[in-house]
Amino acid sequence: MTPVLVEILLAATVCAYAAACGLFLAYLGNDRFARAGALAPRLLLVGTVLHAIHITSSSIILHICPVEGLHFALSVASMTACVVYLALRRRYRIDVVGAFVAPLALTFLLASNLVALSKPDAHYRRAILPIHVAVNLLGDALFMLAFAAAVAYLLQERRLKTKSLGGFFRKLPPLDALDRAEHRFLLAGFPLLTAGILTGVYWAHDVEAGGAASIARAAFGYATWLLFAAVLLLRAGAGWRGRKAAYGTIAGFGCAVLVLILYLLRGAGPAPAVAFL
Amino acid sequence: MIVVVGLSHKTAPVEVREKLAFSAEVLPQVLARLSARPELTEALFLSTCNRVEIFAAAHKDDGTDAAATAVRDVLAETGGATGDVHLTQYLYERSGSDAVRHIFRVAASLDSMVLGEPQILGQVKRAFDAATEAGTLGSVLGRCMTRAFGVAKRVRTETQLGAGTVSISSVAVDLATRIFSDLSGHTVLLLGAGEMAEQAAKSLGKGARHIRVCNRSFERAATLAASIGGDAVQWDALADELTRADVVVASTSSRAFVVTYDLVRRAMKERKGRTLLFVDIAVPRNVEPSVHEIDNVYVYNVDDLEQQVALGLKARQAEAEAAENIVGAELAEFESWRRGLLVAPAIVALRNRTREVLAAELERALSTRLKHLAEPDRVALRALMESSAAKLLHVPTTRLREGASSPDGADWVRAVTHVFDLPDSSNGAHASSAVASPGGPASAPAAVAATEEPVPAASAT
Q1: Contact status of B312 with chain A (Cβ, < 8 Å)
Q2: B59 versus B212: which is more confidently predicted?
Q3: Which helix (H) or strand (E) holds A16?
Q4: Phi, psi at B297, each rounded to 5°
Q5: Which of A176, A178, A247 should one mutate to test binding to chain B, selecting the residue with the greatest count of B CBs within 10 A?
Q6: Model pTM score
Q7: CA-to-CA distance for B248 and A179, rounded, in angstroms?
Q8: Most buried one in A92, A189, A243, B305, CB count within 10 A?
Q9: Closest partner residue to B275 among A170, A242, A244, by Cβ?
Q10: Which are the contacts of B389, defined by CB distance < 8 A and separation ≥ 6?
């Protein structure tokens, strides 16, 4: 397998994700494209399979463990989000949430290519590193799905509150399905995030040495954890459901994305290994 | 001439309609007020959650304005609860053919918020029964109403307008499934135990885990609950029930809000934010509108459901057109009958005049030249003249009836009246009222009564 083939696989994955996005949007935007709603998840599945092949093949060629660098971490996170969505979309009745997952997966995949492809330096290479990255990227994938469900919830909720019952309102999943899915994705992602934070403590002494960017990254990492913890606790204790929980989830995911953006802004510097610390 | 004055969901929002909503108890009073008006010869009062209308027959052909004014006065007198709402801007008027067409369309559910919904026919029939009982229906409006039931029946059987129709209840189910993916895990609370609650129970109750019925009269709640397999609860337990229910269908006849902002606010604390949907199909509304502002609470009243209904209209447009054609055909037939009614007094007057002239001539002859005839011969001669008059008038009266049923039928009537110097009977055509109007023509002329068909009961349709 050559690097050219890897590039072709990447391009094919991008095309499949982009086409899935287009079909989802067409389905939501126009009643004439009813079949697009059924085709879009299939195309997303094709993209996910291509994505998996791309990650596997490129990590073999480049001799980089997919869970040791941010480049692959972002890519694997978006692929994992697609896998979880495809596995659970029927069970949770959230087919249309794919309209939010597909663009996010595409964005993460493209963003991952902005991150330098290099092996982490020896200082970061510890046995705990793959665990740290793996739990974080899986957590990110689940938060991505929770975020997508939260956005869909807010759209649906807005429609119901303004009593605008036409248009793509009918195609969005019921409110309780979106709220339930969002909660379950958060519940599943939160222990992984906690594990990511705990395993990241190993490199905590590097934060001060890393300067303002490292401190901001760590701060947003903790803020993410605190926000998700608050959403889950308030939901259980104070009846924070629906809109408030959705806003909390979106804020938490926003913090997680900020952490990733801070990594991306580091440009060609040493490839960071840790997602949140 | 028939007149319709009223307002409906098309002209007045629920905030106005609920102020004009009448309970069944006041129906006789309204009908009594209508019958006391000399401008009206017949009247029927229809009050549903989507419309308040008075159908009336004007005293004279040229008296529609006066009749409409009289109806407006009665509406204003009766709807005392309207407060600062100016009714005039919401009221519409129809007269003549337009009024008849409107009545046919209402009965056929072509003017309903939910096109093709079946409840309106039952409501019109109840209004008809009430008017019949109060004695405010006569031959013209009565005939019009029975034809309206016939039109509704034809539309039901000859078109697919009612097939797969979204009733308010089914719209409520659809709305509920936009919020709750599966009703089987949820509880439906029916506030009120009337017909609307029963309809809602049939739709929503199929999938719900529990149905609970809360009504001021516990006995009625228990009866409805038993018929739908639900549980009846005491009215005092409403606050507790709001903490358990997920969908609340409110349809009580209360004139004040039954479900208030504070009540729901407290319930939502107990519910820990669980979503609550109110489907308020009552007019006047039962749920305070500000309840909709509470997080995770949604309140939909009858007007809010209209948009949902409109989505289904497109598919039934072809059926609606077929139904409109039926209305048009029936309207033409009714108008033909009504014009025919105009000629009846003239025909009777013509027959009487002929008989009177012949009888006078015969009696004169019998008392002079033919006074030698025995009594059996006199009887035979009278019978001979009677049958001759009937045969002689048969063709002219048939032609007259045909001519009168044409659009220029009034000219035919005027011509015959003029040619034979008959008494003017134009007032009598509509004076067939059963309305006990002190100032109006309380009894129909015998001539008209003799030619008219009895008004069949609504159940006959």
Answers
A1: no
A2: B212
A3: helix A3-29
A4: -120, 135
A5: A176
A6: 0.65
A7: 21
A8: A189
A9: A242
A10: B351, B354, B355, B358
The DSSP bridge pattern shows strands B92-95 and B210-214 to be unpaired
User: Which residues of chain B does A240 touch, with a Cβ-Cβ cutoff of 8 Å?
Assistant: 273
DSSP string, A164-197: --SGGGGGSPPHHHHHHHHHHHHHHHHHHHHHHH
The predicted structure's pLDDT at residue B275: 92
Amino acid letter, B334: F
Query: Residue B234 corresponds to which amino acid?
Result: Q
Average pLDDT over residues B370-389: 88
Residue A264 in contact with residue A209, Cβ under 8 Å? Answer: no
CB of A176 less than 8 A from some CB of B: yes
Does the pLDDT at position B83 exceed 70? Answer: no
Sign of CA dihedral A84, A90, A93, A98: positive
DSSP letter at B456?
P
Asked if A93 lies within 8 A of B181 by C-beta distance, the reply is yes
Q: Is the pLDDT of residue B99 over 90?
A: yes
Give the whole-angstrom CA distance, residue B22 versus residue B42: 20
pLDDT digits (tens, 9 = 90+) for B221-276: 999 898 888 899 999 999 999 999 999 999 898 888 999 999 999 999 888 888 99
d(CA A97, CA A159): 16
Residue pointed to by tokens 């004439």: A32
CA dist list (Å): B432 to B163, B344, B396, B424: 39, 12, 25, 16
Is-contact B208 B238, C-beta < 8 A? no
Of A163, A169, A177, the CB nearest to B181: A177
Among B272, B298, B307, beta carbon nearest to A166:
B307
**Does the beta carbon of A269 lie under 8 angstroms from any beta carbon of chain B?**
no
Verify whether the Cβ–Cβ distance A169 to B178 is below 8 Å: yes
pLDDT band of A227, cuts 50, 70, 90: very high
**Residue among B1, B16, B20, B49 flagged as catalytic:** B49
- Using an 8 Å Cβ cutoff, are A158 and A98 in contact? no
Contacts with B171 from chain A: Cβ below 8 Å:
none
pLDDT at B329 over 70: yes
Cβ–Cβ below 8 Å for A166 and B180: no
Nearest chain A residue to B271 by CA: give it: A239
CA distance linking residue A11 with residue A18, whole number of Å: 10
DSSP B144-210: HHHHHHHHHHHHHHHSSTTTT---HHHHHHHHHHHH-S-GGGSEEEEE--SHHHHHHHHHHTTT-SE
Backbone angles phi, psi at B415, to 5 degrees: -65, -50
| CB pair distance less than 8 Å for A239 and B273 | yes
Q: Measured between CB atoms, does B314 come within 8 Å of chain A?
A: no
* A240:B307 CB<8 A: no
Strand ranges for A27-180 from DSSP E: none
Question: How many residue contacts between A and B have a Cβ separation below 8 Å?
Answer: 58
Taking the Cβ of residue A174 and every Cβ of chain B, the question of whether any pair is shorter than 8 Å is answered with yes
Alpha-carbon distance values, A113 to A70, A73, A202, B73 (Å): 10, 11, 27, 79
Flag if A165 and B179 touch (Cβ within 8 Å). no
CA distance B435 to A276: 87
The structural domains of chain B, ordered by start, are 2-159 (3.30.460.30), 168-303 (3.40.50.720), 333-430 (no CATH)
> Is 0.85 exceeded by the ipTM?
no
**Number of alpha carbons in the 13 Å side-chain half-sphere of residue B172:** 33
CB contact under 8 A, A163 and B307: yes
Residue B35 parent element (H or E): helix B27-35
B49 is catalytic: yes
